[in-house]
Amino acid sequence: MTYAQLAHSKAVSGFVDSLQEPRTPYISPKRLSQALGVKVANLAQLTGVHRNTLRNPSSERLQGRMREMVQVISAATELTGDVDKAIYWYRNEPIADYGHHTAADRVLQG
To answer: Where do the structural domains in the chain lie, given as residue ranges?
Structure first.
């Protein structure tokens, strides 16, 4: 593994680790919303769940949607080497092959 690959791997690992709900095996809605730079209430829209679902971090639907988001952002981080750039791309960059929808739009659509 090259130094660049190792650095990218550590960036992804650190990002994923920072999202864990304390003392649980779940992704924290609060921590993910902070990483994305959105309010927790807006995370409900981004994940396609009702806002009350965010109060139950163990919800399978919520965890599944957040896991999809994290997987895409992690893959983008591997390519860019920077979590912030990957998050920006995920939320803002239209993808021509997907009708100019963003990666966030595509994850929301399933």
So the answer is: 3-108
